[in-house]
């Protein structure tokens, strides 16, 4: 699983960072930053939830 980010769509809500802070954070401009490009299977469910919880639909999963 790889996380894809459309930084142009990100509105800085931070839902992803709240859902899975080991994988997502916000940068100094309040835009999503991925801390782990290919998270482990252990984190899979939380990452999926974080992606679905993005109101701006700026996150996508591949693989």
TrEMBL record:
<keyword id="KW-0411">Iron-sulfur</keyword>
<keyword id="KW-0408">Iron</keyword>
<dbReference type="Pfam" id="PF13370">
    <property type="entry name" value="Fer4_13"/>
</dbReference>
<protein>
    <submittedName>
        <fullName>Ferredoxin</fullName>
    </submittedName>
</protein>
<keyword id="KW-0003">3Fe-4S</keyword>
<keyword id="KW-0249">Electron transport</keyword>
<dbReference type="InterPro" id="IPR051269">
    <property type="entry name" value="Fe-S_cluster_ET"/>
</dbReference>
<keyword id="KW-0479">Metal-binding</keyword>
<keyword id="KW-0813">Transport</keyword>
């Amino acid at each position: 699983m790889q996380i894809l980010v459309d930084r142009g769509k990100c509105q800085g809500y931070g839902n992803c960072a709240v859902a899975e802070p080991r994988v997502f954070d916000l940068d100094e401009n309040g835009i999503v930053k991925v801390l782990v490009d290919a998270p482990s299977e252990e984190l899979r469910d939380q990452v999926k939830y974080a992606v679905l919880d993005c109101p701006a639909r700026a996150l996508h999963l591949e693989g």
